[in-house]
């Protein structure tokens, strides 16, 4: 009987300690952005917002601009790929102002080439 009481006490102790520790938070699996080819200007902002959602959903994985740029680059196709290819031949460049190391510079350059030129006027109007 004493052995049974001890077993019950052990079970209660184990279950109470397990319930007091919350399970670790798991981020939902992220949806990859639609590949961006630069031919449809209105899709630029959709592409950038999709990338930013991925970055904000997983800040540890995307704590460095370089990782953000590489992630976004992996979803470029067509004309946009042809534009980024020369930069990819210099992957070892560590200059923080390099296009591959600065999300702001990358996004700005991508917008200049493939974004909607009327977007600026829409925002200021």
TrEMBL record:
- What domain of life? Eukaryota
Q: Where is this region: Disordered?
A: 7-31
Q: What is this protein called?
A: DUF4939 domain-containing protein
Q: Which organism is it from?
A: Austropuccinia psidii MF-1
């Amino acid at each position: 009987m004493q052995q049974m009481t001890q077993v019950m006490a052990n079970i209660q102790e184990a279950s109470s300690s397990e319930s007091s520790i919350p399970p670790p938070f798991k981020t939902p699996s992220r949806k990859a952005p639609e590949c961006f080819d630069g031919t449809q200007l209105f899709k630029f902002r959709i592409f950038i917002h999709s990338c930013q959602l991925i970055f904000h959903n997983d800040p540890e994985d995307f704590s460095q601009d370089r990782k953000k740029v590489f992630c976004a680059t992996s979803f470029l196709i067509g004309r946009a790929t042809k534009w980024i290819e020369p930069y990819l031949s210099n992957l070892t460049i560590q200059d923080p102002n390099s296009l591959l190391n600065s999300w702001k510079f990358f996004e700005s350059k991508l917008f200049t080439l493939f974004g909607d030129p009327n977007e600026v006027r829409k925002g200021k109007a």
